[in-house]
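Handout, section 4.2: multi-component inputs.
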Amino acid sequence: MGLTAFHRFQDLAREENVVFYYTGYFSQSVVTAMGDALRQRLNSSDATNVTRRKLFSVFVEMAQNVVHYSADPLIDAADAELRRGALWVGEKGDRFYVVCANPIAREAQPKLLAKLEPLRTMTLDEIKQRYKEKLRTEGEAGSKGAGLGFLTVARDACEPIEFDFVDEPDSATTLFYLKATL
Amino acid sequence: MQNVYLAATSATPEVDFRFDSHRMSLKGESYPENAQAFYGPLLDAVGSYLAACRGTTIQIDVQLAYFNSSSTKLLMSLFEQFNQAALAGNHVLVNWFHDEEDDTILEFGEEIAEDYPALELLTQALV
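Output:
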């Protein structure tokens, strides 16, 4: 890549008010370091304590989702996962948004869609109710957390979550995008 | 019973479980990579401690500013153990501290109180 391409990349990031962008392999130490940087950036903004905590919460759920579930692992051990993805945090008007992208197995798409689609139309009260029910049920097979991740993102966002699936060429994977606005 | 003290890290809270004086405290943030790996040994230690408690008054101070979704369930498991101990005749007081403006942390405290009614849980706003 020439420096001109880098300038274009920088200009676009500036136009879109990107607070930060990371692409590559995610591990817990990357998540923690990004979290510290995000927190310092938020401390110098006008965001309320509640918005800061919610933004941080959405950031952690999305970033740990990449660590645990991206279909492109570099290392896959019980306590040292490293998986590919991208995450960015930006500002638009007086709102923040967080977007993350990671590859998933193409056949995993319908199951993910079935989980996410209802969250777009549920009210906040319905989301909180579902969260409470889920809190009291056993974790589902294949889940490394509590199965509460997407519900947590939907609960903390101030608009319905957005998502997309884009097939990766010459690969059995699909890029899964998730966006939350706060 | 050995006391447990773990200093806070970026992703884990300070854990100060003084079993000898029946006072426990959790303070900070909780988003470890593997919540089960972090909380599992703590649940075991609390389980052994509670098994020997008879008519004991136990105080737990919880001041968590943030916890991720996978920590949530393990915190529920922790309070389930204390609730069992309360049902067995111990007195368990939980001081649940939350940011004045933060409903999410407050509501989670209320969930615990609802599910585990044998605990005496007091929510306290930090100003």
